[in-house]
Amino acid sequence: MERLKRTDRLVVLSSILTKNPNTLYSLNDLAVMTGAAKSTISEDLTLIKELLLSHSLGELCSLSGAAGGIFYKPLQNEKGSKDFLKELADRLNDRERVIPGGFLYMNDVIFDPHIISRIGEIFYTKFQHTVPDFIVTIETKGIPVAAMTARSFNIPLIIVRNSGRVTEGSSVNINYLSGSTNRIQTMSLARRALPDHAKVLIIDDFMKGGGTAQGMVNLMKEFNGVVVGIGVVMTTRNPEQKLIKDYTALLELISIDAETNEVIIKPFLGKNVLF
Amino acid sequence: MERLKRTDRLVVLSSILTKNPNTLYSLNDLAVMTGAAKSTISEDLTLIKELLLSHSLGELCSLSGAAGGIFYKPLQNEKGSKDFLKELADRLNDRERVIPGGFLYMNDVIFDPHIISRIGEIFYTKFQHTVPDFIVTIETKGIPVAAMTARSFNIPLIIVRNSGRVTEGSSVNINYLSGSTNRIQTMSLARRALPDHAKVLIIDDFMKGGGTAQGMVNLMKEFNGVVVGIGVVMTTRNPEQKLIKDYTALLELISIDAETNEVIIKPFLGKNVLF
């Protein structure tokens, strides 16, 4: 690679690092990409690190040693995240979203890449200290948010299925009581999908009674997995007693009025509040 | 915001733009963020644009007029993409992946955020000229790839369900013949999920007979939608005659030997080959 000027190196380095969260680049790789000495790259990275920090654009971190290098953490700051969640709650507080049966339509929000990329970074900020090996979700509506969370962590996504699939080989199946439908259902995960003793972070779009999340926790036990955290986009105020105690949510559905269709959603302020 | 030095502005601008593909920033926004005059920002952007181009890191494009601004296109170059697909094919060419019944296990690949972010950018590169309004996929395994493609385009994702869900209101259901199971199945999309006359790009993980893709095309007709393209991660050489003619794939499953479990997968070289 040709030798770049300092400003040019800074542009190339910051683009590569921030585009690829939690991807480790050795100083050597970066030196080859930009044609600069490793010591020069180190100085560049120090400057980029300061600038990202001062603009709340995340953090650069280094890992020392032979397999070391530098990687970008897409951390979100408290003020920006609070504003974002407030706006999101306002957008969801809309009578037009209420569907007969008292359900809330929110697919446009949880399938919007700009919103869910941000949510993925917020979950990353909350759970990064738990150092999960995998993000686990259950089909279907939580998958895009879980995929973006997996992208922020740069760790694999695991999707639990609603029934065993012949195309995935032998699987572990468990029954669980779904709080929202009040019916016994089956969830399933291919034996080869998850190694033994993995640390998993469970991410889903919605929690009501916590039955589905509890099912996923039980399923993880079958793989000797350790659940390091549970994050959902929205939880409901009722029932207050959920099967799962230790979870966090971004938003709370406080009430839906079946007659007027009035919806009240607010940023979550429960026990494990994010910020 | 404090006034930044030129090098500092370059780092901040390139990080913000490349982190948020196809997100429009007005010169005014960027001027406020960095404390510089709009004319200065314009010069910075010209430099960033040249550097991204010369390092195959994508393109900066401007939109003129009152609602104008600048946005980042995450374009992938031909050489890098070919190498990437070749490596991916090699990784999948593994007897251990063959599951009784002649299926191929590839969840670890299509749920890996680093791989699917790249695939999303490759699909973006291929289909950006078709200017879709939505990415459409069907549950379950194609969702992460489709979500990353939606992220590259910065357009909403739509997930077709395998049956109508009470929580999404009235829906349009159609029957289709799934090539892989040779059974009549139902697919369903909430009426409110997609406006009339939308331009949609269909993305899925796998195509065999093309029945599922054909079903999605028919479903889109019910919404007066226009299918501007179909992209799948992997297609099969057999059957050669598929229900869908006009699609592109990244990889081709040429054969699985039921006795030896030998798998042959290569980068796709069919009619609508990507590069």
TrEMBL record, chains A, B:
Residues 112-254 form the Phosphoribosyltransferase domain. It comes from the Bacteria. The keyword Membrane does not apply. Coiled coil: none annotated. Residues 5-74 form the Bacterial purine repressor N-terminal domain. Pfam families: Pribosyltran, PuR_N. InterPro entries: PRTase-like (IPR029057), PRTase_dom (IPR000836), Pur/Pyrimidine_PRTase (IPR050118), PuR_N (IPR015265), PurR_Bsub (IPR010078), WH-like_DNA-bd_sf (IPR036388), WH_DNA-bd_sf (IPR036390). Keywords: DNA-binding, Transcription, Transcription regulation. Homodimer. This is Pur operon repressor. The lineage of its organism: Bacteria, Bacillati, Bacillota, Clostridia, Eubacteriales.
